[in-house]
Batch of 2 targets.
Target 1
Amino acid sequence: MTGSFSREQLSLYFIAGTQDTSRDFFQVLTEALEGGVTMFQLREKGEKSVQSEEERLHLALKAKEVCSRFKVPFIVNDDAELAVKSGADGLHVGQEDLRASEARKIIGSSAVLGVSAYTIEEAAEAVEAGADYVGVGPMYATFSKQDAKAVVGPERITQMRESGINIPIVAIGGIQPEHTKAILQSGADGISVISAIASSQSPRKAAADFRSQLI
Ligand code: TZP
Ligand code: MG
């Protein structure tokens, strides 16, 4: 795994799995990358996702290949073994997944490690465990995560910054292009998006709309 990672790469972080797209998954991914996505996370989750280990590896290898054409980091959600096997650039874990410190041991020091943090305490723990960035949300109401917690809004990011969390932060949950400015003003380095890009009729245009708000 490679480990070059910068705050700018979090600007427009697209997250998706096959369950999030009604059209061909790789077509959607390619168009999103053409529109200006700066990082991608493969998040196969739920009943409609690909279940077999072999198929997941195939999917990850292909997604990694597509991302590498655009020089965009490829991150795997939850599954450290899949991240290693596919040669992903990094791994993202939630609070209910593998512990961040364990994840770091498995993926090594040069891979990118992202951790979901709902509270200031969780963010501080993630920093301690060696996270490269934290994902904070839900910012707004979301339909893409069944067990999503109550909305926290951009204020939570401001609180984290005020309490001294200084690693890169990416906001998540219900984000539309018009939310971008408020989120960046709260202290985030970028936004992560599932449905506003994955369910769009034109993922390219959706990604470009976000990009135009990020300047
Ligand atoms: N974690 C917190 S909210 C969320 C995740 C994975 C879902 C974000 O999806 P969307 O469609 O951008 O609201
Ligand atoms: Mg998870």
Target 2
Amino acid sequence: GVPRICVTGGAGYIGSHVCKALSARGHVPLTLDNLSTGTRQNVSWGPLAQVDLRDGTAVARTLRAHQITTVLHFAASAYVGESVTDPGKYYDNNVGGMIALLRACGMTGVRQVIFSSSCATYGIPDQCPVTEDSVQRPINPYGRSKLMCEDILTDMAGQYGFGFAMLRYFNVAGADPDGQLRERHTPETHLIPLALMTAAGQRGEMQIFGNDYDTPDGTCIRDYIHVSDLAQGHLQALSYLDQGGAPLAVNLGSGQGYSNLEVLRAVSRATGRPVPTRMMPRRRGDPPVLVADAGLARAILGFAPRRSDLATIVGDAARSFGLERAHAHSS
Ligand code: UFG
């Protein structure tokens, strides 16, 4: 039958975009979220159960009540900087949440799990673009918590006989092109929303962390993937598992790298406003270049990003902030 889907973290940035994409395919996703960082307004495509993952009894009760067979697991803490100052929070919420969730899945009718992993599990990669078989040597507690979750999922899915996929996201950005959802973090730390807030005059200047890297313009290079493309990748992973696909760990990125200064120029172009910039020392723990080899996702899932060129990502993000330049062409 049609899988009955639970989305943990469905009230957050990525989870809400995935719920919208699931709804467009006829699903009515159950959002399971403690609303610690997510918001109720993001939950529009199915019911919300306000539950903390670490409360395994409540999670099992909820999964059973909704006859859930498939779990997409997004709920986690995701600030690299905070993970360094408060690592216990990351091991408790991310690793503890994962264990409690999987035990609840094992006690109920869940058959498959899709997990939000991260390129942060690679640390400073030996090779670029990064392939899935690159050594995973994370350099901060956030990345380590995600790597631990990958191992825990592999072992516990084996125990319970679940199908599973671990999707390693690169830099997720942009917003729903229909304007129903946007990227919103408190505090905001991500490059594109901060640059948009700066262009809007809500902050004085954009600080760029390091211009002495061994890259063409000296600033770091990242692989930006549009959140709607990322959502499609989840639907493809779901079809893959529904067809009995073997356990999978796969990068979801565009395979294209852009420097921090290129991103700021794209924000200026999309908004028609300057982004005052100040060069700062490097930020601890930033890999100079992080770009996906997205070949496996294309080959196995048919993953084909459509909105992940920088101009479209930044244009959609700008529009979601009410900041598009008059007559701008965003795609
Ligand atoms: N940057 C600045 N100034 C800022 C903010 C960011 O120069 O004010 C730079 C960063 O130093 C980095 C680039 O912009 O070079 C991108 O930084 P982000 O903070 O937007 O994203 P990260 O590349 O740090 O992403 C990492 C991991 C992801 C993880 C995410 C969690 O790569 O896997 O942090 O927030 F999900």
